[in-house]
Amino acid sequence: MDNELSRRVDALPGLVWTAFPDGRIEFVNRRWCEYTGLSVEEASDDGWQTAFHPDDRAALLETWRVAVASNAPGEAQARMRRVDGVYRWFLCRVNPVTDGAGKVVTWCGINTDIEERKQAEDTARANEQRLQLVVDGFPTQVLIFSPAGEVLHANRCFFDYFGVTLSELKQWQTNGLTHPDDREAVIARFRESMSNGKPYDGESRHRRADGVCRWFRVQGVPLRDKEGRIALWYFLQRDIDDRVQTEAHLGKSAALMAKVEQLSLRGSFSWRPTTGSITWSEQLYRMFGIEPGAQITMDTIAAGVHPDDLHLLHEMIERAQDGKDVEFDHRLLLPNGSVKYVHIQAHATRDVLGQLDYVGAVQDVTERRRSEDALACLRAELIHVCRVNSMGELTASIAHEISQPLTGMTINAGTSLRLLSAEPPKVEGALEAVRRTIRDGRRASEVMKRLRARFNNHAVKTDAVDLSEAAREVTELLRDEIREKRIVLQLKAADDLPPVAGDRVQLQQVVVNLLLNAVQAMNEVDDRPRQMLITIEREDGDCVRLAVTDSGVGFDPQYACRLFDAFYTTTRDGMGIGLSVSRRIIENHGGRLWATPNERFGATFSFVVPSLGDHPANAGPVDRI
Ligand code: ADP
Predict the structure, then answer these.
(1) Which of 383, 520, 559, 584 to mutate to test the pocket of ligand 1 (most atoms within 8 A of CB)?
(2) Which of 386, 519, 534, 579 to mutate to test the pocket of ligand 1 (most atoms within 8 A of CB)?
(3) Residue 467 Cα to ligand 1 middle (Å)
(4) High-pLDDT (> 90) share of the chain, %
(5) How many CB atoms lie under 10 A from the CB of residue 228?
(6) Looking at the domain 255-364, which fold is it?
(7) Can you give the residue ranges of the PAS domain (predicted)?
(8) pLDDT in tens, 41-83
(9) Is the pLDDT assigned to residue 389 strictly greater than 60?
(10) What are phi and psi of 328, to 5 degrees?
(11) CA dist., res. 512 & res. 510, Å (int)
């Protein structure tokens, strides 16, 4: 090779060499020598082989042998040892140079350093293998699609679940892997993503290896290369069948619950006092007349509560701070001005962190309250009517008994007047008429006496009466009337009270009178709590005392005695006989009934009756009519 040519060959960016037609090395360039550390002489003939990695030599020689034998170009990859002993990968290519007759006159070869490319390829391959391992190890189903939408791969989790091969999977659009009802929608959605590159997200049913279809959430995202072109699509599938079934079940339960709440006029809520967060059921919104879905706070609730009952709500909130169960009634004042009665019950629970939560129910009891109120009215009216009736009955019987002798007296007096006015006066006849008048007068007075005797002697039964129990019964009877008037009633009965001797019904009548009077006395009271206290205690001398204290209008002490007079009343509808009858009943029991004004407000009406054993059975009734 002339100097000029060998200089040019030396400048080429590769290790260049030539060989004789029989394959022996003829020449290597300077770069070749510099790289391997061998001289041209050392490389000639077969010496060049020592520059290659022993593991790659056989394959390289075989390629070289085939090329020489066939006079055709050859190509092989092999590691060449650098002068410092480090091996690097080279691509060795060789071409035959022929003369005009096609005979090989020489071989020209070039070895190019491909170490970096090779490493990059190895890294990519290793990465791919690692990725494959990772994807296979995913506990969720992964599918990989080409940008055109062809299935390239799926992970083990996927194949195990569906029991199909890759080629069967490739036919997913037609082979029934997708539920027939979802197929069209899934394909349409898939095609859309493939064409516009937007992520895929949907829920659909797919057939498991055992033939059972289950719900899946399927999400797909494109993986883009540096230029932004889609390189692959990754799809993840999650089995959400249990969740879907639970949701369907919950949906059904919620619908059922809503229906039940609607039918039973009941709503439910949860409340966390520490954060103030409140959740309402649909029915509760309806009950309070609030737009469904509106945010509920204590202020929203308070705005719906009847102003007169707001204190009940505040008391309830205060009580709830201690984590106790709460139960109370209050009224709602709806935007249209109507009033509803609701009954609230809430149960306190604590979560794992000890946070207090209330779960409760609100029941619309308007109808029930209305009928209860109507019943209470009826009952109160009945009690009043009974009182009036007993008076009416008494009056009627007196009228009946007296009217006869009175008529007789009038007739006889008239007769004697007529006989005495006659000319001459008929004295005998007149005397007889006067005698008859006297007789009728006596009869009338006897009737009166008898009546009085009968009334007063009305033998008081001397049963053993448990006064506190009898009083409790009466308060129960008047419970609604008392509650309706917003009166707080307290009954304090001492323990171990002895029974009193008497007529339970009559004693209860007295208590009814005292309670109704107390209610009446508090009717106009609005500037202080309406309170009524019944105390039953043992009194000196083996008696039992019952006192009714109220915070009503009270009375002027100077009229204290007149209160017990028959027909004394200061009330518009009063008859003024309640206290007089009560006093008579108590006195018939050998007891005493009196009234005292309270220190600040109201009055106390008390009576004492002897306890059993001390009843003055022979003392006889007190004649007071
Ligand atoms: P009435 O209740 O029909 O008026 P009563 O004989 O029961 O008849 O009562 C007579 C009067 O006594 C009442 O009108 C009222 O002036 C007075 N009175 C009764 N109870 C009370 C009370 N608790 N507080 C104030 N005044 C009372």
Answers:
(1) 520
(2) 579
(3) 23
(4) 35
(5) 7
(6) Beta-Lactamase (3.30.450)
(7) 1-71, 127-197, 278-324
(8) 999 888 999 999 999 999 999 999 999 999 999 999 999 999 9
(9) no
(10) -160, 165
(11) 5
Q: What is the pLDDT of residue 458?
A: 53
Q: For the chain, what is the total number of helices (H) and then of strands (E)?
A: 18, 22
Structure tokens at 33: 């020598």
**pLDDT, tens digit (0-9, with 9 covering 90-100), for 529-588:** 999 999 999 998 789 999 999 999 999 988 888 899 877 888 877 778 788 888 988 998
Distance 576 CA to ligand 1 centre (A): 7
pLDDT at 231: 87
Measured between its terminal Cα atoms, the distance across the chain in Å is 164
| Domain range list for the chain | 3-113, 135-239, 255-364, 461-619
Total number of residues shown for the chain: 625
Eight-class DSSP state of 305: B
Class for the domain spanning 3-113: alpha beta
- The gap from C-alpha 153 to its chain's centroid, in whole angstroms, comes to 48
Distance separating alpha carbons of residues 64 and 109, to the nearest angstrom: 11
What is residue 459's predicted lDDT score, i.e. its pLDDT?
54
Burial category of 266 from C-beta neighbours within 10 Å (exposed 0-12, middle 13-18, buried 19 and up): buried
Q: DSSP letters along 333-386, please?
A: E-TTS-EEEEEEEEEEEE-TT--EEEEEEEEE-HHHHHHHHHHHHHHHHHHHHH
Query: 391-450 pLDDT, tens per residue?
Result: 655 666 566 667 777 878 888 888 888 888 888 888 888 888 888 888 888 877 876 776
CATH T-level topology, domain 461-619: Heat Shock Protein 90 (3.30.565)
Task: Give the residues across from 67 on adjacent strands.
Answer: none
Is there a shared CATH topology between the 3-113 domain and the 255-364 domain?
A: yes
Kindly report the number of other CB atoms within 10 A of residue 68's CB atom.
20
Q: Whose CA is closest to 30, among 1, 3, 2, 6?
A: 6
- Continuous H helices in 365-466: 366-421, 427-457
Q: Say if CB 544 and CB 538 are below 8 A apart.
A: yes
For residue 589, what are the contacts with CB-CB under 8 A and spacing of at least 6? 460, 500, 501, 502, 503, 506, 507, 609, 610, 615
pTM (two decimals): 0.39
Question: Which residues make Cβ contacts (< 8 Å) with residue 245, sequence separation at least 6?
Answer: none
Contact assessment for residue 154 and residue 140, using Cβ atoms and an 8 Å cutoff: no
The protein residue whose alpha carbon is closest to atom 2 in ligand 1 is 574
Which residues, 6+ apart, have CB-to-CB distance to 88 below 8 Å? Answer: 79, 80, 82, 113, 115
User: How far is residue 94's CA from residue 25's CA, in Å, rounded to a whole number?
Assistant: 12
Pocket of ligand 1 (CB under 6 A): 513, 517-518, 521, 550, 552-555, 563, 568-571, 574-579, 603, 605
Q: Thinking of the domain 135-239, which architecture would CATH place it in?
A: 2-Layer Sandwich (3.30)
DSSP sequence for 64-115: HHHHHHHT--EEEEEEEE-TTS-EEEEEEEEEEEE-TTS-EEEEEEEEEE-H
pLDDT at 625 > cutoff 50: no
